[in-house]
């Protein structure tokens, strides 16, 4: 009997040890799993024995570093370090070195050296305490990536100064385009209730180098600028400060009327200017390191300077003057388009903004979405990058998956971010070069957050990887999407090769698969009205033409696609001639943007030799096969992953497959009404007819939060 029990316990133990430990996802990539490499473990144990930190024990940032080192040491290598007050007795030395020429203000240098007596010493130096904090997280990452401590030499400085999250969170805690529950910011219980989650949020951001956050929706509410709410913002700012994170707010342009009792918000009116100055003084009295304002003006119904016949520059400069004495900045969004304007929507931001290049005050940045329409699965880079050389510009990516299957589809955005960043704006420069803006201190990147109060923060367990990848790239634009995926997997899931390789493979194929089953060959904006989930290429009922899918794909009996070449809207002319050359001719255009720039015949000959109709069918089907493969690959990990973690993803992937088939069949049945061509031989037959797909309706789809 006893023998049986022992055998049973042994089998159970083996079963458990084969599975990664279950997690509810709350710890993100900061779970600090035990190291499974005994040789490295011993090495790290000797480094983490005695640690020297700069002697300012009251400093909150230094004590965060200390807590983090203790936690990482205990969990990863199973030891508790001593913190010593003399660096001579330490094997791990953190020091402020303002003279270090290899690094910038927020950077760090980690150097390993072997001292007499074969003692391995690691010195981590930085110019500021925040550099030490970032370096601390880098060192912990290096441990988890199984880097040999005796060979460490890392010199790192962020390439962009402002590495920012944009929360589209409302005062009532709904989140516009949020798919992970309600807002983490509980305005009702602030300022007094300091939710642990605020600290965990700041810690997670600091671990990937994010140093700025806009906590309110760009569709702004003026109430956030009242004293009552500013006290709440102050409370958050105090929590975030030791983590190196500055807080920003969105400014509603009409706030002087709505909460200031003025009759106008005209940016050239003295009372209005004064109102903003006083508001800025009030904010900086409460929050001395307040970052500044993010503004969406004259876009999708938001008020702005054009309401008073003033320009974007007039509006931005007026607010910029108010924050300038406090070193604040204004981030002015270039996401503008109007349906009263007959021109192609893709051209409008460029047309409206380029005349103002050089006219913005020094503390204004223009924030440009990655592409000219709106966070579509695939867009060419926005023509404004490179077109405003006298104005600092910032990238706006959307981390939340508004058009990318929301929190239901597994889509790793790393490859999408990279595709845009590496796009060449002319023969010699990339989008990255424009962002880096070496001559000017103002440079940055924004990511529309995918964070909510779900236990795992982001809804889909893999959506965390997009937050992670965004932060890592904002720090270092040169990192590769696959390396970042690898880091995230090893810190979040497992260090076992088979698991890492398989998950990495799933992630790296997911972006292209999604583009193929939703909007292949340059199609765009053919999602369901309003909520943007699922296919609706037939959509033509919205009041504004430029909100309707038919505006974008322009299918007819002759062909499909938006003619943005010289014979059409000529949007292609907004790019440098070197870029134009690649896109302006439908016979040589990069096929991933073909239907973005051209209306081509259903019989157009593709590079593969197929005609366009057949190619479209193959592309959609490849997207579906890709998701089938993702499903199989995941199932192959069943014995390696804890069932509590395995099953939710298994179910989500099954929904993704269902949705990919739905996209394929609904879109192709609809486009077939124009192409009038049969499906290729052996093509999978749609389960339902077009009428059925057109009858589907989702009045309560998430993310429309008001
Ligand atoms: O993508 C669109 C969204 C809106 C959003 C807008 C913007 C915040 O559908 O919900 O509003 O972009 O970026 O301003």
Describe this structure in words.
The structure is a single chain. It contains 21 helices and 16 strands. It is an alpha/beta fold. The protein folds into 3 domains: 29-156, 2-Layer Sandwich (Chitobiase, domain 2); 162-492, TIM Barrel (Alpha-Beta Barrel); 516-562 and 599-695, Alpha-d-glucuronidase, C-terminal Domain, CATH 3.90.1330. The strands form 3 sheets. It has an 8-stranded parallel β-barrel. A 6-stranded mixed β-sheet has the order 2-1-3-5-4-6. A two-stranded antiparallel ribbon has the order 15-16. Helix 8 (270-286) packs across helix 9 (312-323) and helix 14 packs across helix 15 (497-518). The chain binds 4-O-methyl-beta-D-glucopyranuronic acid. 4-O-methyl-beta-D-glucopyranuronic acid binds next to loops. The site of 4-O-methyl-beta-D-glucopyranuronic acid (GCW) has 11 residues, from loops.
In short:
By secondary structure, this protein is of the alpha/beta class. It has helices at residues 2-18, 38-47, 60-77, 129-144, 196-207, 227-240, 255-258, 270-286, 312-323, 345-353, 414-421, 431-436, 464-475, 481-492, 497-518, 549-553, 577-583, 594-597, 612-635, 643-675, 690-695, and strands at residues 50-52, 82-84, 92-96, 108-115, 119-126, 153-156, 162-166, 212-214, 246-250, 292-295, 329-333, 364-369, 393-398, 444-448, 559-560, 600-601.
């Amino acid at each position: 009997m006893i023998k049986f029990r022992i055998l049973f316990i042994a089998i159970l133990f083996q079963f458990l040890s084969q599975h990664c430990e279950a997690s509810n996802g709350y710890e993100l990539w900061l779970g600090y799993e035990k190291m499974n490499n005994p040789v490295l473990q011993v090495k790290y144990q000797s480094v983490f024995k005695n640690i020297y930190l700069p002697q300012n024990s009251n400093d909150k940032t230094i004590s965060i570093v200390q807590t983090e080192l203790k936690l990482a040491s205990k969990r990863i290598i199973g030891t508790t370090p001593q913190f010593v007050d003399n660096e001579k007795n330490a094997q791990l030395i953190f020091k402020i070195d303002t003279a270090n020429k290899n690094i910038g203000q927020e950077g760090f240098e980690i150097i390993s050296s072997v001292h007499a007596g074969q003692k391995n010493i690691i010195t981590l130096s930085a110019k500021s305490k925040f550099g030490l904090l970032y370096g601390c997280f880098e060192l912990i990452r290096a441990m988890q990536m199984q880097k040999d401590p005796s060979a460490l030499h890392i010199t790192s400085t962020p390439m962009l100064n402002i590495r920012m999250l944009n929360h589209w969170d409302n005062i009532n805690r709904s989140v516009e385009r949020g798919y992970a529950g309600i807002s983490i910011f509980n305005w009702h219980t602030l300022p007094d209730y300091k939710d642990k989650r605020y600290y965990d949020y700041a810690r997670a951001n600091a671990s990937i180098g994010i140093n700025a956050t806009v906590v309110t929706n760009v569709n702004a509410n003026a109430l956030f600028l009242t004293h009552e709410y500013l006290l709440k913002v102050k409370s958050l700012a105090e929590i975030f400060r030791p983590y190196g994170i500055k807080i920003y707010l969105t400014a509603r342009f009409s706030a002087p009327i709505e909460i200031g009792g003025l009759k106008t918000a005209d940016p050239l009116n003295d009372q209005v200017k004064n109102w903003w100055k006083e508001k800025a003084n009030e904010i900086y009295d409460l929050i001395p390191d307040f970052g500044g304002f993010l503004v969406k003006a004259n876009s999708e119904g938001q008020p702005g300077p054009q309401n008073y016949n003033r320009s974007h520059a007039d509006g931005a400069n007026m607010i910029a003057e108010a924050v300038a004495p406090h070193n604040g900045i204004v981030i002015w969004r270039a996401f503008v388009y109007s349906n009263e304007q007959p021109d192609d929507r893709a051209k409008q931001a460029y047309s409206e903004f380029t005349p103002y290049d050089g006219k913005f005050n020094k503390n204004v940045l223009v924030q440009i979405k990655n592409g000219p329409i709106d966070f579509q699965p695939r867009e060419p880079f926005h023509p404004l990058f490179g077109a405003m050389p006298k104005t600092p510009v910032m990238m706006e990516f959307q981390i939340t998956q508004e058009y990318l299957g929301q929190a239901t589809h597994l889509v790793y955005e790393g490859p999408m971010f990279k595709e845009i960043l590496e796009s060449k704006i002319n023969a010699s420069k990339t989008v990255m070069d424009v962002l880096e803006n070496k001559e000017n201190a103002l440079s940055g990147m924004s990511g529309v957050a995918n964070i909510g109060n779900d236990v795992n923060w982001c809804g889909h367990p893999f959506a965390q990887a997009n937050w992670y990848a965004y932060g890592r790239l904002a720090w270092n634009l040169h990192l590769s999407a696959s390396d970042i995926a690898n880091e995230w997997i090893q810190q979040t899931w497992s260090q076992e090769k088979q698991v890492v390789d398989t998950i990495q493979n799933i992630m790296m194929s997911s972006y292209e698969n999604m583009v193929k089953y939703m909007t292949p060959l340059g199609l765009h904006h053919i999602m369901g009205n309003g909520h943007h989930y699922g296919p609706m290429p037939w959509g033509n009922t919205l009041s504004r033409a430029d909100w309707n899918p038919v505006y974008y794909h322009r299918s007819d009996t002759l062909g499909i696609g938006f003619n943005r070449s010289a014979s059409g809207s000529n949007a292609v002319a907004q790019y440098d001639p070197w870029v134009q050359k690649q896109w302006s001719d439908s016979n040589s255009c990069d096929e991933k943007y073909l239907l973005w720039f051209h209306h081509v015949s259903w019989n157009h000959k593709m590079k593969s030799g197929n005609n366009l109709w057949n190619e479209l069918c193959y592309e959609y089907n490849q997207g579906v096969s890709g998701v089938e493969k993702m499903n199989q690959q995941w199932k192959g990990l069943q014995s390696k992953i804890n069932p509590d973690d395995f099953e939710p993803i298994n179910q989500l992937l099954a929904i993704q497959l269902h949705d990919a088939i739905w996209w394929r069949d609904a879109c192709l049945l609809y486009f077939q009404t124009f192409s009038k061509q049969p499906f290729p031989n052996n093509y999978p037959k749609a389960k339902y007819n077009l009428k059925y797909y057109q009858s589907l309706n989702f009045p309560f789809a998430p993310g429309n939060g008001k």
